[in-house]
Design brief:
11 helices, alpha/beta, 14 strands, four-stranded mixed sheet, ten-stranded mixed sheet, UDP-N-acetylmuramoyl-L-alanine:D-glutamate ligase, 37% helix
């Protein structure tokens, strides 16, 4: 039995070396990359046993993705499919003014046909937390229903449900996302959401503290975490808002920072830490992730403890 079970797609990320262009590169670095598996790995590194669920093509590329995740120490429970393909994305790095460009190639991926009945629901109901993100229902109409059914099954089994809103404009419009996500909200206990998404997709107004209060009270979440980029994060729980600053870091790769934050937060809550302490661990893990290439937070708890000991502030109001 795992503390945490996550569900979603993991792609293969192909990146040209250094700042080369996609159209001229002659080689790619390949890494597994997916929000839900990233969260599982971060949580596992911070002391919570984790399992990742997904539907994956029975192909060399599918086996490549699953094999890499297993190397990180999490358990994988996948439905192997002879239909659909392995999703990929291409990451082209560039400094200002070019910036970083992401090109998705995930249409008709095997995960888009996944249905709740294909999975061992007991795994979800035996876990302490079930987690997925807003990326999953954005991928297909089938996955919208599957996400709903899995959240319902978790709640019926007494499992706490956690959800990262994780809006991706390349996948769907704000209107589509708002309509779908709000239907999922009754099945969610813990919501993680970026302040910009609460404002631009859900139409909430106010500063991060107000956003957290409004979301928590209007949708009956147990906990709401609003992330604010360089301005840190706030966590709402039992009517109290806790603020957490970011930790100073030298950025090597920002991809996966939010997943590292969420995975660490869930892990420390599973270990009985209060909201301010869980936010400290989340922020410190996110800072460490920014020093690591790839999508995965390959950190240790000792390293995170050291970052926290070096300084940072949290405020409750």
């Amino acid at each position: 039995m795992s503390d945490l079970v996550t569900f979603g797609e993991t792609m293969l990320r192909l990146s040209p070396p250094d700042n080369e262009r996609l159209e001229t590169t002659v080689e790619f670095e390949v890494r597994a990359a997916g929000a839900e598996s990233n969260v599982a790995i971060a949580a596992d590194r911070l002391g919570a046993t984790a399992t990742w669920l997904s539907k994956v093509p029975e192909t060399p590329l599918g086996r490549r993705a699953v094999g890499e995740l297993r190397q990180y120490g999490i358990e994988t429970d996948v439905v192997w499919s002879h239909r659909g393909r392995q999703g990929t994305y291409y990451l082209e790095r560039g400094g200002k003014p070019r910036g970083t460009n992401v090109v998705y190639d995930r249409e008709n991926a095997a995960i888009t046909t996944a249905e709740a009945r294909e999975f061992d629901i007991d795994r979800i109901q035996d876990a302490r937390v079930f987690f997925t993100t807003g990326i999953t229902p954005a991928l297909s109409s089938t996955l919208r229903e599957t996400t709903m059914n899995m959240l319902k099954a978790a709640k019926q089994g007494g499992t706490t449900t956690a959800f990262d809103f994780n809006y991706r404009r390349k996948l769907w419009s704000p209107e589509e996302a708002e309509q779908t996500m709000t239907k999922l909200f009754p099945g969610i206990d813990v919501l993680v959401i970026a302040a910009r998404d609460a404002q631009n997709v859900l139409g909430f107004e106010g500063d991060p503290r107000q956003l957290a209060h409004k979301l928590g009270s209007q949708h009956n979440f147990t906990t709401v975490v609003v992330t604010c980029g360089a301005d840190g994060a706030v966590g709402w729980h039992d009517g109290v808002v806790h603020e957490q600053d970011v930790y100073e870091t030298e950025t090597v790769s920002q991809i996966g920072t939010g997943d590292a934050f969420t995975g660490a937060f869930i892990a420390r809550r599973l270990h009985g830490e209060d909201i301010p302490t869980a936010l400290e661990y989340a922020a410190a893990t996110a800072a460490l992730k920014r020093t690591i290439p790839g999508d995965v937070a390959l950190v240790t708890k000792d390293e995170v403890d050291a970052v926290i000991a070096e300084g940072g502030t949290a405020v409750s109001r």
